[in-house]
Each structure stands twice: as structure tokens, then as C-alpha cells.
Write a structure and sequence with these properties.
Length: 272
């Protein structure tokens, strides 16, 4: 099942994707990343190391920078690579004194809901996202301050009152920082909400959790993987909730997740 789904998804990306997307695909399928492909992803960085979002082209956004880090990882540049030192330094400079991340207040009128400064849900999401990246980049102190900020946000249901993606990013952050108990509470909540998560969301969740060492056999990983297969269309694509223009990136995310989830830590394939 995994091999068939990956083959169909890869064919879709090769048909519909651009050169950078096809390069990311080949790396995700086990190819050697090309320095030029990785460099192209970083070429749009601003002087401070951040990246501009579509909604504010002259501003360095925490959200856009985290998104570019995810693309770079798909192309073979993980968060600890020296090529990303300026990007990681940007995120560290933007962390607030209380451990949170938030976009600049001057961007309030432009920013979408998930990144809007002054919004508690957006603040929790950005803190979980940026906190996870700096953790994986080796900035343990900054990650622990993010964990401290988010710890008292977890409610009686085992959830952070924010977007669903904030919860799986926070679960990965807590797990990677060593707070397995809180991570498990968040993952139990996500398992109950699995039917509400889109294809690209499931892929993002799988990649985030496996990236910090959550086991392949964890009930949330297993159910997310099973559900992800159900989203694949006849043409091989995994549809994006943001519309057909984003189907290639959504399919790349699914390729990333399925490729990771189909391999055990010892390199052997998992059961379909």
C-alpha cells in the first residue's frame, strides 16, 4: 500500500510540480540533495535571516520563516545545518522574554488569523512552531522557555486552546524537550480529533512527531498514517485545504510523512 501510494504521489508531483518541488521530491524519495536546490530555497531570505510572507512582502515573519525551514528540510537541509544559522538566529532574536513568539504588532491589520499579533491562539501556534524548530536546531534553553510558556495553556481536556496544528507542534515540542506526560495528553486529544485533520495536516503531524523520536507504533502515528491514505485522489494527489493551487505542496508533505512512517528506526520497512 505504501509503495503504491508513494509512486502515485510522486507521479503527480513530477507532472504538476515546478523544478524546486520536483527536487524536493527526489530528496524525499532517497535521492541526494543538490546544493543548488537547497540554496534556491534560501535565496529569498531577508538581511535579518527571516523570510517575508505573502501578506507582507517587506516584513520578516516568524510564520513564514518556519514554513521555509520545513521546505528546506524536505530539500535536505535540516535545522542543524550551518547554511541555516542565520535563519535560526532570526528565530532566537524574535523570541519574547516570556518564551513566546508573536508577529510584530504593526502587522495586525495584514496578518492572517493564525499569525495575528495580539491573538492568544496565534501566539500559542507560533510559539509551538518556532519552539520546535529551535529545539531541533539545538537551542535547548530557548525551547525550554517556550515549553514553560505553553505548559499552563494545556486545559482539562489535554488540549491547548488554539488551532489543531498548534497542538501537534506543541506535542512534538514537549516530547523533544523531555516532558512526555504533557506530550501524551496532547496526543490523546489529537487522536480523538483525527477526523478533523486534513491530509496536509496529518502529514505535518506525522513528520513533526517522528522528527523528535515519537515511536512509529504510537497509536496517534498509526491512526494518522491509516487516515492519510484515505485522502489520496485517483490522480495521486493529496488535496490541500487551501485549494488546488497548493496540491503539489500538500502531496509533497504526504510523501515526506509516508516515507518516514514506512521506515522503522533501524531502516527496515514497517508493515503497510
Amino acid at each position: 500500500m505504501v509503495d503504491s501510494a508513494l509512486a502515485r504521489a510522486a507521479d503527480f508531483v513530477r507532472r504538476a510540480g515546478g523544478p524546486a518541488q520536483r527536487a524536493r521530491l527526489e530528496h524525499l524519495l532517497g535521492g541526494t540533495p543538490q546544493a543548488s536546490d537547497a540554496a534556491a530555497l534560501l535565496a529569498a531570505s531577508r538581511p535579518d535571516g527571516g523570510f517575508a510572507p505573502p501578506w507582507s512582502p517587506d516584513y520578516s515573519s516568524v510564520d513564514a520563516t518556519c514554513y521555509r525551514l520545513a521546505q528546506a528540510e524536505e530539500a535536505g537541509l535540516g535545522p542543524g545545518r550551518p547554511e541555516l544559522s542565520d535563519v535560526m538566529a532570526f528565530l532566537l532574536r524574535r523570541q519574547r522574554g516570556d518564551g513566546a513568539w508573536e508577529e510584530d504588532l504593526a502587522q495586525a491589520a495584514r496578518a492572517p488569523r493564525w499569525a495575528k499579533p495580539g491573538d492568544a491562539m496565534a501566539r500559542a501556534y507560533l510559539t509551538a512552531n518556532a519552539g520546535l524548530w529551535v529545539l531541533r536546531g539545538g537551542a535547548q534553553d530557548a525551547a525550554e522557555r517556550a515549553v514553560q510558556f505553553l505548559s499552563d495553556k494545556v486545559d482539562a481536556h489535554g488540549a491547548i486552546p488554539s488551532f489543531l496544528h498548534a497542538n501537534w507542534l506543541a506535542a512534538a515540542l514537549f516530547w523533544g524537550a523531555g516532558d512526555r506526560e504533557t506530550a501524551e495528553r496532547l496526543m490523546a486529544y489529537l487522536l480523538r480529533r483525527i477526523a478533523d485533520i486534513s491530509a496536509s495536516g496529518l502529514a505535518w503531524m506525522i513528520v513533526s512527531l517522528l522528527g523528535v523520536g515519537v515511536g512509529h507504533g504510537h497509536p496517534l502515528i498509526a491512526e494518522a498514517r491509516r487516515t492519510l491514505f484515505q485522502y489520496q485522489r485517483e490522480d495521486g494527489a493529496f488535496p490541500s485545504e487551501d485549494g488546488p493551487a497548493h496540491d503539489v505542496d500538500s502531496t509533497l508533505a504526504a510523501v515526506h510523512a509516508l516515507a518516514l512512517a514506512s521506515r522503522r528506526p533501524d531502516g527496515a520497512p514497517s508493515a503497510p
